[in-house]
Amino acid sequence: MNISTPPAPPKTEALARRYGQDAIPDVGPWNAHLDLLLSHRSIRGYRPDPVPEGTVETLIAAAQSAASSSNLQLWSAVVVRAPETKAELASIAGGQKHIEQCPLYMVWIADLSRNQRLGDQENVTLEAPPHFETFLVAAVDAALAAQNAVVAAESLGLSTVYIGAMRNDPMRVRELLGLPDQTMAVFGLCVGYPAADVENEVKPRLPQPAVVFSETYGNPEEPALRAAYDRLMTDFSERQGMGAVSWSKRVLERLGPLKSMNGRERLAATIRAMGFPLK
Ligand SMILES: Cc1cc2nc3c(=O)[nH]c(=O)nc-3n(C[C@H](O)[C@H](O)[C@H](O)COP(=O)(O)O)c2cc1C
């Protein structure tokens, strides 16, 4: 009889993938939903196969089931399938080929325009929309909705990747999609089936004590926690063929030089020009 060590329960495997063997948190109850959430990975290569009929409606039903601030529902989505539009959007995003490859590309919009039309129709002056707070509510609503769509897609065996690079040139996105005033494309989302050759290892995250605190903010162990995560991510990066580069180095490269913002450093002015005064 083979008396080898029994396999680790699924929750330990999922947590080890997410945090590495040395930082597995002592989690409580577990279920298949959590397995799904912890298996998330962004996918950047797609087969051309179409998604099943009704997928958009399913994803939107999931998205609309997310919480929404005061139930204002300040978001919309534009579903893009046309190859020429996807090619333009890919070029705005710095040539991200997965936008062209994926059968379904969804652009998520912070949308105050629908409720503005309601105010106009009812002859009620809306004093809240020009304020930064209301723009933020719309952007948060859009993100929560999209994330529900991501989880729904993954539960159906589909893969996704967010595309924040829509914000490289949101005015051009607006022209391409015919977006009205008081709307802004906050990000895109590729949806489809992963290409066979695409790398899909779960990307580890910071250990929990680096991001969650008890009663008041902070952990004096932060430098050591970051160093441990850097070791994990350097190995991950090497396995992915992206060089032995630490997480800290990538953060400093991304947040250090202004040029890494790809034009987005002018975003506040652009958003104002789109009909959000951001008072
Ligand atoms: C709002 C947002 C925008 C993103 N934009 C891009 C993007 O333009 N291109 C890209 O390849 N990945 C993009 N990503 C994916 C992140 O790089 C990815 O989520 C992160 O590296 C963690 O990897 P994981 O999703 O596989 O866990 C974006 C993610 C978010 C949440």
Strand order of the largest sheet: 1-2-4-3
CATH architecture of the domain at 55-195 and 263-273: 3-Layer(aba) Sandwich
Number of helices: 12
Q: List segments where confidence is low: pLDDT < 50 over at least 5 consecutive residues.
A: none
Derived from helix and strand composition plus strand pairing, the structural class reads: alpha+beta
Shape designation: globular
In CATH, what is the homologous superfamily of the domain at 55-195 and 263-273? NADH Oxidase
Gap between N and C termini, in Å?
A: 73 Å
Helix and strand succession? HHHEHHEHHEHEHHHH
Beta-strand level of the residues, as a percent range? 5-15%
| Mean pLDDT rating | 96
Largest sheet: 4 strands, antiparallel
- Named CATH topology of the domain at 55-195 and 263-273: NADH Oxidase
Which CATH class of the domain at 55-195 and 263-273 is shown?
Alpha Beta
| Ligand roster | flavin mononucleotide
Q: How many strand units?
A: 4
Radius of gyration: 21 Å
Helix content: 40-55%
Short description:
The chain is of the alpha+beta class. It is 43% helix and 10% strand.
Architecture overview:
The protein is an alpha+beta fold. The protein has a domain at 55-195 and 263-273: NADH Oxidase (3-Layer(aba) Sandwich). It is built from 12 helices and 4 strands. It has a 4-stranded antiparallel β-sheet, sandwiched between helices. It is globular and about 75 Å long. Flavin mononucleotide is lined by residues 40-42, 44, 93, 96, 161-165, 187, 203.
